Amino acid sequence: MITDVRGRTFRFDSPPGRVVSLVPSLTESLFDLGSGEAVAGATDFCIYPSDIQCQRVGGTKNPDVAAIRDLQPDLVYMNLEENLRRHGEEIEQFAPVFVSEPKTVEDVDTLIGILGSIHQQESRAGELVEMLRVERRALPQRTFTFACAIWKKPWMWCGGDTYVSALVQSAGGVNVLGHRNRYPEMDLDCMASLEPQIVFLPDEPYAFTAADAEEVKARTNARVIGPFPGHLFTWHGTRTILGLRFLRETL
Q1: Ranges of H-type helices in 4-74
Q2: CATH code for the part of the protein at 144-234+242-250
Q3: Residue 43 in this model has a pLDDT that exceeds 90
Q4: CATH topology (fold) of 2-101
Q5: 244 backbone φψ class: left, alpha, beta (φ>0; ψ -120 to 50)
Q6: How far is Cα 77 from Cα 23, in angstroms, rounded to an integer?
Q7: d(CA 156, CA 89)
Q8: Stretch 203-225: mean pLDDT, rounded?
Q9: pTM given for the model
Q10: Would strands 144-151 and 156-157 be described as parallel, antiparallel, or unpaired?
């Protein structure tokens, strides 16, 4: 029996032959596991692998539920934060829905193992988990304070209970907003008063620019890393391996 983040239990006597993924990072992870042929549908934002061939079913926040129903999936993957509960409830009228929400790098270990079990790709899952652990062990052993922006107008930042924060913490980072939850608003002057040594500017969900980086550097006196591909920080799954590698090489 396998349990998702909601406590729902699932039994898979055989790998699901037709799945729909409403989580871009999980779509990529399924292909990396060797189960890409089972992906019958994915969102418009599922851009990895670049040559993915399947039906598109809308966005993560506005999926085409009727199109998903027509695909007759054996299983639909959703994420507690990326997707909306009401869509999950609609989809559960015709297909089982597996919901995930990893908050730490260790959670990603578990998630990859679960995907491997569901799709009977345990050996490959073990290889991927080991790759992730190798990258984690290779991270430099140092401590630094940081902030990670996710939006502008208003400025918003990753709080201490986010996956992004946990990813950077695995590299020795101490989030200056670690005591705040979710994505608090804070202007640059207030952020400067917290004296982060590093400010990260991923290019998603907000497309930060080089001009934004210069502004943050001038206003906070912090080292600014970015803009850089945001999926390295926000996608959990096999992309976490690349996120850890990015941190190691950048720091």
Answers
A1: 24-33, 65-70
A2: 3.40.50.1980
A3: yes
A4: Rossmann fold (3.40.50)
A5: alpha
A6: 7
A7: 30
A8: 96
A9: 0.93
A10: antiparallel
Cβ(175)–Cβ(160) under 8 Å? yes
Q: Which of 40, 93, 34, 84 has the alpha carbon at shortest distance from 63?
A: 84
Domain with CATH 3.40.50.1980 in the chain: 2-101, 144-234+242-250
Helices H, strands E: what count in the chain?
A: 10, 12
Structure-block tokens of residue 61: 């926040």
User: What is the distance in angstroms between the CA of the first residue and the CA of the last residue of the chain?
Assistant: 41
Q: What is the pLDDT of residues 12-35, one digit of tens each?
A: 999 999 999 999 999 999 999 999
Cα separations in angstroms, 112 against 33, 37, 79, 129, 194: 9, 17, 14, 7, 36
Q: Does the pLDDT at position 152 exceed 90? A: yes
* Helix/strand/coil percent split, the chain, to 5: 40, 20, 40
Look up residue 221 and give its two tokens: 């006196």
With a pLDDT cut of 70, the percent of the chain lying above it is 100
Q: How many residues does the chain have?
A: 251
Q: Which residue has the tokens 């239990």?
A: 9
pLDDT at residue 23, rounded to an integer: 97
Crossing angle between the packed helical segments 105-118 and 24-33, to the nearest 10 degrees: 60
Token pair of 202 as six digits: 């991923």
Q: Check residue 140 and give its pLDDT.
A: 86
- Residue 204: the pLDDT is 92
